[in-house]
């Protein structure tokens, strides 16, 4: 259902993640709440203390759609893989929810001098800074959707299995599904298990078996999501294998 939703957006020309545009709203509101509270303390304006609380309420409201679209993007573009930046963002989002909730409850009384509220607003600000930093690292840094270095399947377009026009199938499939975590044949999640020299490339059958049910060398499940036939057909898996074998042998 989520992929169908992104497919619909793609047909009208929108192929980007949904989370980044809306997440700026709660981030800006959290910063605004801190600014109003700081000004209230500085100039002893009790009315601005309540304004800071009201802005926090708006921030809390917008956190929920931001998280929802973040989950949609995570499932669609990253196939639900628990890469480090996403783990950290999840923790920071949970912390921000708690902090905003506490701030709204404790800030119901208008007080100019409240160490607890100052700490809450300050920690909320730190949380959104962290969310912004790790979000940007996913888009622009090592976690970029199309040009980074890692090891899970990432869709760079509305359909994870679409090959770019004019490019060989195996290469396009690698760029759309694997490059975000395996750029250059490496592995940014588990550096000791790169594609280069991997035993998984010893034969097509072994490669397809691993692709359908990824596992660590000890047999335990890893972070790489499975690619079933609906996501990557047998013919596409063969094309991808041929590209990997030639590129990273």
Task: Report on the architecture of this protein.
The protein has 249 residues and is an all-alpha fold. The protein folds into two domains: 2-139, no CATH class; 169-247, Cytochrome c-like domain (Cytochrome Bc1 Complex, Chain D, domain 2, Orthogonal Bundle), CATH 1.10.760.10. Helix content is 61%, strand content 0%. The chain has nine helices and no strands. It has helices spanning 2-11, 19-43, 46-78, 84-106, 115-139, 169-177, 179-182, 204-212, 234-247. Helix 2 (19-43) packs antiparallel against helix 3 (46-78) and helix 8 (204-212) crosses helix 9. The radius of gyration is 22 Å and the shape is elongated. The chain starts with a helix and ends with a helix.
List keywords for this structure.
single chain, Cytochrome Bc1 Complex, Chain D, domain 2, 2 domains, mainly alpha, 9 helices, 249 residues
């Amino acid at each position: 259902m989520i992929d169908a939703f992104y497919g619909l957006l793609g047909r009208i020309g929108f192929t980007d993640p949904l989370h980044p545009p809306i997440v700026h709203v709660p981030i800006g509101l959290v910063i605004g709440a801190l600014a109003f509270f700081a000004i209230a303390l500085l100039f002893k304006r009790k009315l601005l203390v309540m304004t800071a609380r009201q802005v926090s309420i708006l921030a809390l409201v917008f956190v929920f759609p931001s998280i929802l679209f973040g989950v949609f993007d995570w499932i669609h573009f990253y196939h639900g893989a628990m890469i480090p930046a996403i783990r950290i963002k999840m923790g920071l989002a949970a912390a921000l929810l708690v902090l905003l909730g506490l701030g709204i409850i404790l800030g119901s009384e208008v007080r100019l001098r409240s160490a607890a509220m100052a700490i809450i607003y300050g920690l909320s600000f730190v949380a959104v800074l962290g969310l912004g930093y790790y979000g940007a690292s996913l888009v622009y840094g090592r976690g970029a959707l199309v040009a980074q270095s890692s090891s899970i399947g990432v869709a760079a377009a509305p359909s994870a299995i679409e090959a770019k026009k004019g490019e060989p199938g195996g290469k396009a499939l690698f760029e759309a599904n694997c490059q975000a975590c395996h750029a250059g044949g490496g592995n940014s999640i588990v550096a000791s298990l790169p594609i280069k020299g991997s035993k998984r490339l010893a034969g097509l059958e072994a490669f397809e078996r691993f692709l359908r049910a990824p596992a660590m060398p000890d047999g335990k499940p890893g972070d790489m999501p499975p690619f079933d036939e609906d996501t990557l057909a047998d013919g596409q898996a063969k094309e991808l294998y041929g590209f990997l074998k030639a590129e990273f042998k």
